Amino acid sequence: MTTLSLPLNTVASQQVFAAVNEGLLSSPKTLPAWLFYDETGSRLFDRITELPEYYLTRTERAIFTANAAEVVALAAGTQALQIVELGAGSCDKTCILLQAAVERQDTVLYEPVDVSPAPLEEAQERIEREIPGVLVSPRVQDYTRSLALDPPLSGERRLVLYIGSSIGNFEPAEAHALLAEIRSTLAPGDTVLVGVDLVKEEALLHAAYNDEAGITEAFNRNLLHRLNRELGANFKPDLFAHRAIWNPQHSRIEMHLESLLRQIITIPGSHTEFGMGQDIQIEFARGETIHTENSYKYRPGQTESMLEAVGFTPLKTWTDKRGWFGVSLARAA
Predict the structure, then answer these.
(1) 3: Cβ–Cβ under 8 A, 6 or more apart, which residues?
(2) How far apart are CA 64 and CA 197, in angstroms?
(3) Domain limits of the chain?
(4) Cβ of 154: how many Cβ atoms within 10 Å?
(5) Is a pLDDT exceeding 90 seen at residue 177?
């Protein structure tokens, strides 16, 4: 699950409309995962991270708690460190790394990047209050489309954080392109820290995306509520069932919304580039699904191979004792 959201304005509505137009008129039907993260979806995801079944967040946090000082020392070398985070969201786990950086060098510049300004403003207020020595410089930007960073201060190295298994939401070719884009923004000696969920027992994976409290189900269905709110669509979310399944061939959890009956959905055509257009009519057969998200699970060594392929030199990978999650640090060659 990602931490990407779009601001509610005309341009964003057009982007939402374009994504829906492309995805729901294709076969099979799909929607991009960034649509999950409106205000309601972001709150639901925060609740997901606290669920007993959802091990990802607390496992990665434990890795940072045990190894933050070493991560910062390896990334910085003999220089000071600036830290950038892509898809920053609430920055909870990042605070552990920021605290380690402040203990090492007294002050640190932190640049959280997200397309939604609200969580960045909240993170800035919280971090500067809780960790004196951190200067927060938020960047409102959709890093999945293009990434533009200012040059680091003289004599400092940059560490880019791409944590939370966010890269697992991308198809392999897309993940490769994103890492290549990150590499293109960095100078030799800069580093990237990538967190990935690792392959494990199917029962554990299934439980993480099918929690007993139904929060993930609500998160998935909220995507349809968002289309109703923002585009005036007439989805009845209760007529779509949450499905999260393990696809061993592609090593990924797939999330779907399955139509429980034959139905036709209408979306007004007023959100096109020119402000006008025909309504979209979308037919669903009973049992037909909208593929809403992939969450790829990596095998040991796979992250390092991806990083090497785009011009990074792997430095070290940390995992928890059970081998459920991995965090890899690599230096730009």
Answers:
(1) 37, 42, 45, 87, 88, 89, 114, 119, 164, 166
(2) 14
(3) 1-333
(4) 5
(5) yes
Q: What is the pLDDT of residues 39-89, one digit of tens each?
A: 899 889 989 999 999 999 999 999 999 999 999 999 999 999 999 999 876
Q: Which residue has the tokens 């392929």?
A: 309
Which pLDDT tens digit goes with each residue over 2-27? 434 334 445 567 778 888 989 999 99
- At which residue do the structure tokens 């020392």 appear? 73
Name the nearest CA neighbour of 126 among 152, 98, 165, 85.
Answer: 98
* CATH no. for 1-333: 3.40.50.150
CA distances from 196 to 54, 74, 117, 187, 331 (A): 14, 19, 26, 24, 17
- 252's tokens: 């990924």
If we measure between CA atoms, which residue out of 154, 159, 163 comes closest to residue 75?
A: 159
Structure pTM?
A: 0.90
